[in-house]
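Below is a filled-in request sheet from our internal design queue. Each sheet records the structural input a requester submitted and the sequence that came back. We keep these sheets so that new team members can see what a complete request looks like end to end.

REQUESTER: design group, bay 2
PRIORITY: normal
MODE: inverse folding
CHAIN LENGTH: 303
BACKBONE (tokenized):
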């Protein structure tokens, strides 16, 4: 009787399987891993987390205090997840089959321009998705200025791009920004309206003449302030190019680091504008999605 057990017929022997652990009770990730991996110390485990080699139900987790639930499966990858290499300046906040929400650093363009073709959020995400499947594509839904940090959403299909852009105007009130401005607003909160238009040199201007541009409405409230600066929460209707920057210049309290629109100070070496909260209804699932980032540390240091 012949035995067909040659090594070449075992795919497992070619590619070692990842180590999979099952969670039995609710506990913090670090505590679980220390108990399950007696041959590794805390620093070894922190290194695994930092390199995104610890997956909880298939998703890379980096927080050591992440709370585990019974039934979840922990996978320990033998190599760093490729996302850690690729995503310089971009952190994935949410991803599903239809869309992807990321938090971008200041200094990254959303997409390439005629004048500039360096690495962008679009190119980084395109590479990330194509590494998973070469047929994957990414589509721009909205943009953030290069020097603005924060939340931005991309679609994974042309249909989803159109659905998101259709609903964008309705969800404008669910997008909040943080702005650090020069000085202190009086009153501390309010609304500013004007008509915006763009010059031939791509600078946006503000006017009270309805015939000159498109109506833009900006709501603002002060979160913190001192003698030099104020931290504002800002929302827009409908959300036009450079709207926050132009309107705060109108109010004689420009965004710090915004030389283009009247700022004379740059205490943190970047524009003091951050896309803080993003909320919208998922066009396919109908689920209400809401994402909020932490306030940039450089903003808080001023207060």
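RETURNED SEQUENCE:
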């Amino acid at each position: 009787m012949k035995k067909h057990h040659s090594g070449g017929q075992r795919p497992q022997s070619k590619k070692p399987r990842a180590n999979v652990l099952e969670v039995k009770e609710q506990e913090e990730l670090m505590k679980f891993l220390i108990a399950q991996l007696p041959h590794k110390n805390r620093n070894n485990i922190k290194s695994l987390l930092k390199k995104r080699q610890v997956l909880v139900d298939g998703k890379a987790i980096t927080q050591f205090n992440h709370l585990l639930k019974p039934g979840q499966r922990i996978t320990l990858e033998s190599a760093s997840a490729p996302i850690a290499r690729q995503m310089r300046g971009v952190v994935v906040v949410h991803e599903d089959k239809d869309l992807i929400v990321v938090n971008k650093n200041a200094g990254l363009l959303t997409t390439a321009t005629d004048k500039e073709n360096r690495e962008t959020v679009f190119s980084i995400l395109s590479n990330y998705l194509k590494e998973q499947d070469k047929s994957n594509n990414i589509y721009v839904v909205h943009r953030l200025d290069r020097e603005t940090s924060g939340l931005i959403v991309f679609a994974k299909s042309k249909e989803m791009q159109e659905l998101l852009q259709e609903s964008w105007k309705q969800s404008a009130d669910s997008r909040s920004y943080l702005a650090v401005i020069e000085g202190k607003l009086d009153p501390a909160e309010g609304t500013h309206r004007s008509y915006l238009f763009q010059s031939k040199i791509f600078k946006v201007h503000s006017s009270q003449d309805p015939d000159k541009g498109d109506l833009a409405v900006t709501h603002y409230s002060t979160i913190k302030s001192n003698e030099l600066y104020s931290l504002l929460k800002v929302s827009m209707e409908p959300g036009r190019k450079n709207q926050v920057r132009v309107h705060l210049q109108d109010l004689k309290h420009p965004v710090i680091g915004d030389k283009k629109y009247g700022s004379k100070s740059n205490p943190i070496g970047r524009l003091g504008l951050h896309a803080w909260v993003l909320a919208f209804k998922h066009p396919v699932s109908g689920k209400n999605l809401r994402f909020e980032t932490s306030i940039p540390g450089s903003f808080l240091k001023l207060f």
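SHEET NOTES:
- The mean pLDDT is 86.
- The first strand starts at residue 19 and ends at 22.
FILED BY: M.R.
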